[in-house]
Amino acid sequence: MLDFLYFCTDMLTKTQALVLKMVKYGDNKFIIDLFTEELGRVSVVASISNSPKARFRRSFFQPLTLLDIEIDVRQTKNLQSLKSASLAFPYSSMMIDPSKMCIVMFLSEFLCAVTRDEQRNTLLYNYIRSSLEWLDGKEEHISNFHLVFMMRLAKFVGFSPNIEDYTEGCCFDLRSGTFCMAKPFHPDILLDKIKEAIKNQKNSASAASSEAHATAVKSQQADSASVNQTQNTSTSADKNAKVASPAGDVPKYLEGESEASRKLYSFVSLVAPTPMSVLILGASGTGKEYVARRIHELSQRAGKPFFALDCGAIPKDVAASEFFGHVKGAFTGADQDKKGAFEMANGGTLFLDEMGNLNYEVQVQLLRALQERKIRPVGSTKEIDIDIRLVCATNENLAQRVAEGNFREDLYHRVNEFTIYMPELKDRGADIFLFADLFIKHANKELNRNVEGLDSKAKERIAAYNWPGNLRELNNVMKRATLLATGRYIGVTELEQSMAHIQPQAPTTLHDEETELQRIEAALKAAGGNKSKAAQLLAVDRKTLYNKMKKYGI
User: Fold this and answer.
1) CB–CB of 165/544 below 8 Å?
2) Is the separation of the CB atoms in 515 and 485 below 8 Å?
3) I need a labelling partner for 444 at 20 to 30 A (CA). Which of 68, 81, 205, 383 fits?
4) What whole-number percentage of the chain has pLDDT above 90?
5) What ranges in 257-356 are assigned the alpha helix state H?
6) Does 108 score more than 80 pLDDT?
7) Cα separations (Å) of 184 from 174, 260, 394, 431?
8) By three-state DSSP, how is residue 394 classified?
9) Distance CA 144, CA 148 (A)
10) This model's pTM is above 0.85
């Protein structure tokens, strides 16, 4: 507000300025767009010529020239009067080096667009000025100057990536301004591709039908001649065909064909043959247990046991029994010997799901077993040697929990020799249709239905939805829709009935700093305090959300 009042007061103002562009207004008059230190973006009018007696020389107003100026500011005018101008920083090489001149011309056009409505911003002005002074004095290695300049400038105009979220191999989503583990998925783009694919499919089907008809006519005589010869063979083949039902050929799992899926399973194939412990990180419902099983199947322990244990469902007082087993009479209710998870998985792979939910005391017991490679069942005096490959999974940020003192650092490093990040369903592109078809086939088998798939409107609907529950949510919706379907295909009506409990919300962003706090509070309220869901609504990762909450004291 102070900047606004300052600008609106009639006065003679001295300031430094950067020349952005100059447009001819009359015979000797020009309109000059300036970005000033004190007033922000200003347009001035001045008489300019190359005459020795001229008040203002044309050479003063080349793109990105640094000037000391005096302006007669009038709040009632859009064009202000330039009273004086002199060089604030004479360039030594900028206007004679062809490479630097090209950079200057590009950046002047860029800054014209970026600073169009910019008010006073001293930090931004100082950044531009210091960058230009550095470029003028640099003799080599300037080819990427404009790229670095624009990336750093983004911080001043409200759009800048959080570099802390970057890991090697990440993609940058220009829409959300965030790094993501896989190629960004945007439903509107996908919808266009779906419509095009459906159109091409119809055209291909029509062409195939015509070709098939022509082929049938040509082969009709040959088929008639061999009817008697093949009659008995055909009968036998029909009997065999009934034995192998199509439902029996439905795979239990599907890996997907998207870039995110290919990257995921390339990591699985890489680590599976090794003895390294693996930590699988990802949101609920992304398929962490299947990845764990796949690691086991591709390992040298494939023929040995795979045992999965949900750590989130283990009460503290029975954790030792679940992990290590117990002997008869060890405690009230122990009426027989029981093998624990470690012994059940001995020689093979032990999968600990929801690892982040383990009590701190249980973490100590688990660490000791992993270090010593021995366990002692509750109530027993004998130790059992164990040989397991450990795979853990969680939707928690274990590194943050370590920093908060809620998870042992030594246990974290023990289970985290190799990390695999699970992509969310919204990041797996067209794989959503492959998974939907698979879940429909499973539902057909379970519910004794015969649904062939989704119609085009229903496909558009599932592509537009964010699927916060990931594969688990998609599976549940497809099962309900299969039961409700009255025809060969699931329509948008049956689909919406199956999604009646869902409250779709468009993601918001945090790019407007003036409303950032309100957006965060609204997202947390909409998510019922769940930070993971709130981060999804805000189109940021949880780490960014935590940093923002810390910043505002939420």
Assistant:
1) yes
2) no
3) 205
4) 27
5) 259-271, 288-297, 319-324, 341-344
6) yes
7) 9, 9, 23, 13
8) strand
9) 6
10) no
Q: What is the dihedral of CA 355, 360, 366, 371, to 10 degrees?
A: 110
What residue has token string 């990105």? 64
Buried b (16+ CB within 10 A) or exposed e, 365-402: bbbebbeeeebbbbbeeeebebebbbbbbbbbbbeebb
Model confidence band, residue 306 (pLDDT cutoffs 50, 70, 90): very high
Please state whether beta strands 11-24 and 66-73 pair in parallel, antiparallel, or not at all (unpaired): antiparallel
pLDDT of 181 strictly over 50: yes
Instruction: Give all domains of the chain, ordered by start, each with its CATH number.
Output: 2-145 (2.40.50.140), 185-207+429-502 (1.10.8.60), 259-421 (3.40.50.300), 513-552 (1.10.10)
**8 Å CB contact between 284 and 394:** no
Please report the pLDDT score of residue 198 as a whole number.
Answer: 64
Find, among 47, 9, 42, the residue nearest to 25 by Cα: 47
Query: Which pLDDT tens digit goes with each residue over 358-391?
Result: 888 888 888 888 988 998 888 888 889 999 999 9
Cα distance between residue 475 and residue 491, in whole Å: 16
SS3 for 212-233 is: HHHHHHHHHHHHHHCHHHHHHH
Give the SS3 label for residue 72: strand
Q: Report yes or no: 375 and 342 within 8 Å, Cβ to Cβ.
A: yes
Q: Which residues of 173-212 are buried (b: 16+ CB within 10 A; e: fewer)?
A: beebbbbbbbebbebeebeeebeeeeeeeeeeeeeeeeee
Average pLDDT over residues 423-451: 91
Q: Is the pLDDT of residue 201 over 70?
A: no
CA–CA gap between residue 18 and residue 63 (Å, rounded): 8
CA atoms within 13 A on the CB side of 480: 16
Burial of 452 (0-12, 13-18, 19+ CB in 10 A): middle
* Contact criterion met (CB below 8 Å) for 393 and 353: yes
Q: What angle do CA 48, 77, 83 make, to 5 degrees?
A: 35
Q: Are 16 and 95 in contact (CB under 8 A)?
A: no
**H runs (alpha helix) in 448-553:** 456-464, 470-484, 492-498, 516-526, 531-538, 542-552
Of 216 and 139, more confident: 139
